[in-house]
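#dry-run=false #mode=assembly
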Amino acid sequence: MRIRFEGLEPRELARRETLFHVANGYLGMRGNFEEGVPGNLRSIRGTYLNGFYDSAPIHYEERLYGFARTQQSIVNVIDAQGVDISLGGEAFSCFTGTLNRFEQALDLAKGIYTRTVDWTSPGGRRSLLVFERLASFDMQQLALIQVRVTPLDWGGRVELVSFQHGDVVQDHDPNDPRKASTGKKMIDITLASREGSAMLMAARTTQSGLMMASAVAHRWQGAFGQEVQSSKQVSQAILMCEAAQGQEVSVTKYCVFTDSRREADPVTQALTLLDQALAQPFAYWADRQADYLAAFWRGADAGVRGDEALNAALAWSMYTLLASAGKDGIGNIASKGLSGEGYEGHYFWDTEIYMFPFFLLTDPRLARPLLDSRAAMLEEARLHAREMGHASGALYAWRTITGSECSAYFPSGSAQYHINGAVAHAFLSYWRATGDLAYMAGTGALVLVETARLWLDAGHWHEGSFRIDSVTGPDEYSCVVNNNYYTNRIAQHHLRGLAALCRALDQAGLLEQVKAQTGLTRQELDSFALAAEGMYLPQDEKLGISAQDDAFLSKQVLDIAAIPRDRFPLLLHYHPLFLYRHQVCKQADTVLAHFLFEEGESEDVINKSFDYYERITTHDSSLSECVFSMMAARTGQVEKAYRYYRGSAALDLEDTHGNTADGIHAANMGGCWMGIAFGFGGLRLFGEGPSLRPCLPAQMAGYHFTFLWQGSRVRVAVEADQAQLTLMEGPAIRLRVFGQPHELASTLTLPLNG
Amino acid sequence: MRIRFEGLEPRELARRETLFHVANGYLGMRGNFEEGVPGNLRSIRGTYLNGFYDSAPIHYEERLYGFARTQQSIVNVIDAQGVDISLGGEAFSCFTGTLNRFEQALDLAKGIYTRTVDWTSPGGRRSLLVFERLASFDMQQLALIQVRVTPLDWGGRVELVSFQHGDVVQDHDPNDPRKASTGKKMIDITLASREGSAMLMAARTTQSGLMMASAVAHRWQGAFGQEVQSSKQVSQAILMCEAAQGQEVSVTKYCVFTDSRREADPVTQALTLLDQALAQPFAYWADRQADYLAAFWRGADAGVRGDEALNAALAWSMYTLLASAGKDGIGNIASKGLSGEGYEGHYFWDTEIYMFPFFLLTDPRLARPLLDSRAAMLEEARLHAREMGHASGALYAWRTITGSECSAYFPSGSAQYHINGAVAHAFLSYWRATGDLAYMAGTGALVLVETARLWLDAGHWHEGSFRIDSVTGPDEYSCVVNNNYYTNRIAQHHLRGLAALCRALDQAGLLEQVKAQTGLTRQELDSFALAAEGMYLPQDEKLGISAQDDAFLSKQVLDIAAIPRDRFPLLLHYHPLFLYRHQVCKQADTVLAHFLFEEGESEDVINKSFDYYERITTHDSSLSECVFSMMAARTGQVEKAYRYYRGSAALDLEDTHGNTADGIHAANMGGCWMGIAFGFGGLRLFGEGPSLRPCLPAQMAGYHFTFLWQGSRVRVAVEADQAQLTLMEGPAIRLRVFGQPHELASTLTLPLNG
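#status=ok
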């Protein structure tokens, strides 16, 4: 399975840099050309380490109490991508001479990105150049770049100058008024030296005072000679050989990155790891990469038949989720993964609601560090709750790297209290999917209890129901509202889930330990239960739908069909008050609530709500279409589900939001997987266990996906008019299909029509 | 009548600088000591010209569409206050030697501030120094500073060095985290020269590119010799004489300020005006000042008997309103008048709702330029409406100098659409009080029609009523709400008033001209009338009160009695979301609506609303207590009205909000006058004309006030158990007292108990 583009389109350069970034959850390197590009082309040259940030004070013209004080931004670290190439004395560039062939491909089974260039120089020398890259899943600090050169119709001097470059700035674009016109410098080089044949460099962030190091060295095939030079900001290795016509010569660049959030001594550790890495050739690390991915794909086995584009998008989504997700309990998943600087490299609820399910249900060992990363932010969440005026509890920051709030516009930032519910939802799902009570009795309970306390402090009783005022739901076109259905529903789920967990902990003799650790009391648990059962969920009797919030349905409906296409996304063309004043949704809100929590709502309310909100939703957020796809399938509109699914699958590969250059839309990639499993497959994990409601759009020949539940791995394959369920490993499992209970011990084949 | 303080209290220095500023509506000079103060004391040295501003881009970490782009700030202009004094070779300072007597007094009849210092130098020389200042009401560009020195027990050299200083920065305070720690420079000196014995200086603002000039020269009594020196940033005149023991010598400093918002050539005009001014001695300008004020006080005749502090506060309030109000149709009234840089010298709704009534009812010639100043902003208001997404109409900026929005936090800024109603209310009141149909047919109609159109575009019909969603009312502790009672009520008043005006214009044969000028149609007028009559005014049936907005009464009540005193004002200690989530009011909102528009609401609703909102109002805004005083009187709680009135009267003189150093609270000064006329006097100007409902708190022996209505000037004097109404000038007038109609032709004496 590959993602592949042929031909070089200068206007798409920055987008392709995103699509062909290599990453492993710690280290991400955009698919920049080793040899560089002309300065007039839009290109974002970047390498990032998950959670490695610089900070800066946030300036407000009018600062009110409790406004977030400090920005955090993912840092564009030391650049080790550069390799200038001279062939028979002529500098190689894709923008001179003749490109006989140009191909970029990411192999999802190998985990290697390859750029293949068949090039005739201005002087007439034809050469084949193959660039291969990987960010190792085995050694997360390691990236490899292999350059293979074959003189096709000439012989002579091949010279490579391989750089390590410390004069790095953040993304900027003098032609885009929304971006900085000059690049901000976030690292200062503190060390640049040669250690044997290795080039070593270290840097300190300007404000946050974090340290990082990079160590670079080379192996080669061919009669290369090497000379290493080092200066304050740039080190370089000059590699030269004489190549015969038709003879491939190659150099592999080993790049190791370390940082002080993980290592006590990043410099020493970088050199140690570089030594380990250098002991093995490119092929060794490529084999390890393939082995790692083979195991991954066994768990993540999913595909679409009869639509190769969709199938590739799905595979790429799963692969990129893996490449984006922190695996060390420090890094989480930035909303752009490790592919760019968009949204400052912040973590949002995207992780828990859109991406966590994929990891949880394909390999919970990848899900757990995401929970650990949130647990590590708990103290910051407590402080944030105090800043927001809450006497007790913890409130997770809407956007953050280390846990402190980085949102400079609270109405669509800190006001999104539902992030607490998202975090809780992930912990509760983890418990239900894995049964890991030991984890829940420790870390899990700590997070769940403190975040639950927040709801009790934020909400209040009024006329017999528990209400939560002045919060913002997922839809950022309505901010600071009262009783957002989604928020109240996820809070209810949170409080109920905690109660259920406490019962299970009690039965396992673990509750007393939790009470001692958290100060939880019976009385407090009772107040949680009362609030959950009294939770106010706004409904509109006349319309027969769930109301997005108390006031939403009395506002003026915005006729989005009458708005010219060039005025979308609306947030770039309308003042927030205009949007807040109208019934218009940036994204799924109530519809998302019905996806996550359909229990208790009638089919009729779910169907009518979908129809109602669909008419006023612009999908200006990339978090929207995948949800509408799943809920279209849920409401029996299978062809519509397919259309939304296609939109979701195409988002980055076809750049439908126009900003893939700034990085991938990681949440949508989770949505792309969920669209198969939860959407067409109808998978739900409420109450007693998995249930399915598979359907198949006419445009697909079939699809399949796999999920793991309490140790049982189930493969669901749908084609023609039937679904085949296969127990791939683990004990027999009870599940429901179209509401009917089944026990799956080996294979079940069921008709699609319920 | 004087405001007077004895003794020098260094900690109160900055506050006294505010209290003893001199101003005339164009030019304001803080009461800084001519000879300066030690650098470690908090002092704000400043001179300001109404509406003379510098601009700066507003930076947002997250800028959304339509956010205000450019800040405007009143400029601290060239400093002409400085006079160093040497007495027998010893430098005069209030902070060395012995202060035998120190007195500061502002004479409200003379319009002169006097500082009297009986000082013994460290070397033992005793002298009497008298500093007198005025900002001329006759020549608005002119300020005079007279220094009189009498050697009491010695004779010898008296030397004055009088400065004109261009190295001026804005207010800053390294000890206050809310203020800039270093002073921002907003002017660059472009010219510093001698013109004869005059010192001439000109400056350009750094960003807005405005020009200003100051010209300074001296006259003296005594055998002074003068030497004038001029350098790039500082000019000085050295004046020396030998004074005999007991002989008073004096120097008068003439300071003229001009600016390019008023003058094509500020430099030439400054010199011309200086020549005119210099032709007359201090005594001449003092006489003119007294004449001007005598006329003013005839119109503004009001007072309190039996409480000298209240009487002085009332007189000072009226005087300071006069000193603050722009009279040239360019400057309006900054919320701090011309006494400081607080709120950047911006104009708010304070002008129309709190201060305009005083001018309108005492001297409409002073009211009219305030309307003209708003009319001059109409085009900016149109542009602002477009920015905010409105297809038609004009929306006045919440805070501004030239008309463009300067609020960097829209939820308690641009969202306060009610400012449109405030502007309209002032125009409509002007029409009713003066009958000036010619003005209304031109400027008035232009403003009223464009602002009315905004309501129609901002609101919408829902379930048979006209609603206005997502606006902020006066109370900034609840932002972006739906159907704020105050906003809807003032919009209704606006639309109804415009309809009434159009009928009157029609009768006068002026409507066609208005239609041609504004594009107003019969259909549009009908839609205005429909919206006015269908305006939704939220009520709570159970509580029997008007609801502040749709959601307010379902929120949690904040127990403000339980909050420690040092946590007020709440906005400095609680995140906005905490405040928005609770029933808590910064200031009068619904209660203000009931003050302005009681027609149509029952006494019961008004009374219960007052009681309800009073319990949850913190009065953290200086716009609140005066309204509660008036409405306490209205609801028959006369002693409570008195307590609020005392709070309002003491606000600046006793610095009860702790920030008088930054400038006066001009709106509260309007409230101080309204508290007598509208509060205790019960004056209302609804419908057919003036009505009164006088009451007298036990703590007062009596009070009186005067108002002008359609050419009839009425003096109302209340004492003991009766009110005496006297027609001071103009035709007999029909008015109601306690609901009963009366015709006032000369004098009426009526009992207080209705």
